[in-house]
Amino acid sequence: MYFYAVFALILVAPQYLRLWALAACFVVLVTLGRIAPLQGAIFETYTNPHVLEFFAGAVLGRTYGLTLPLRARSFWVSLHGVAWRLWSSLRR
Questions:
Q1: What's the superkingdom here (predicted)?
Q2: 8-12, 35-39, 67-71: least confidently modelled range
Q3: The pTM is what?
């Protein structure tokens, strides 16, 4: 649940940078988990690729909260779902 703490810390950033900062944080952690030979429950938890799903939820929430017409929001939310489905099929 550390990602909630990361999310809370990101709130101090300007609004236009928040998603980028969240993405950078989680991508760096997941990449570190893939290239570093460290082991342990905490390291494996913090670098687990499943945290990217939390980021995907943040993107989805941001997309839904945009002041776009309903059709445009529906398009972007649907596109997000398709992209996530493709991503999850590639990870297997």
A1: Bacteria
A2: 67-71
A3: 0.65
